[in-house]
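Practice problem. Given the sequence and the SMILES for zinc ion, write out the predicted structure.
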Amino acid sequence: MKALFNRNNALRIMKAFSPFQDLRCPFCHSGESRYVGRNSPLSHVRICDSCKLIFRAPKQDMGFNEYFYQKAYAESHHGAATDLPKDEDMARLKDTHFEGYAKDFSPYISLLQGLNVRSVLDYGCAWGYGVYQFSQSGMKAIGIDVAQDRVEFGNRHFGDVLFYDPEMILARGIKVDSIFSRQVLEHIPSPSIAFDLFGKILNPGGTLLLEVPNCGGRKAKEMGLKWKPFSSLVHPLSYTSEFFLEAFREKATTIHFFESPFDPEVELERFLRAPNHLSPEGSDLCVLVQF
Ligand SMILES: [Zn+2]
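Answer key:
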């Protein structure tokens, strides 16, 4: 009960009932958006008429995001992405490719290898279990995550390859062939925060491989906002294939949508021969983009 009355919650309550709420789209800043539904007593969900981004109002700011992912999320959310393994278990975990502890990245790695990708940034890398798997496959791999404690843990075990501040990557002049981001873009206040960095560090002809909860899929259509990944305290943004088509239409040479889990050989073949622009029905939407 005490936690309910902290400063951040007080600000949320004030924002939720403010008549001066800023309802512009957090990505394209259009003022034209439609009400989708109420997802909690303190917030509702809107869809931008222009870029099709689905966002929660009141909007989340980066300050809250940093506070939340450094402290509250890491403490309350028990999952591989945030729980740090014990230092003494790391040798065994590396030997077993983090079996039972973290997601197996091999389908994503095979797909990127099929596109001759030699270097990758894992955006939202947590403590670096994905970066480690990418580098074991022969790629040059780095990662970025907002949570400094996880980044420091990863750097102790994997070398100096993780960052918590985009400026640190830019200052080193690092460029990559590809950017991978799995179940991260729905957690940030605006896609621009990620896309601005992508634009600065991706080599010409580079590749993006993104995965987010599929808010244009079967579950989202059937259950709407009752489908948990659609919108929650930890998901201020929700995505459909329409948004990515709109966001990358001008700069991309190829965009391909598919669902996860997937067969990397099949998806590579489809990407190269007949890219799919339609929304898949599965719960997780993957987007493969080549520039
Ligand atoms: Zn918009």
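Check your answer against the key. Residues 75-80 have pLDDT under 50 and may be disordered.
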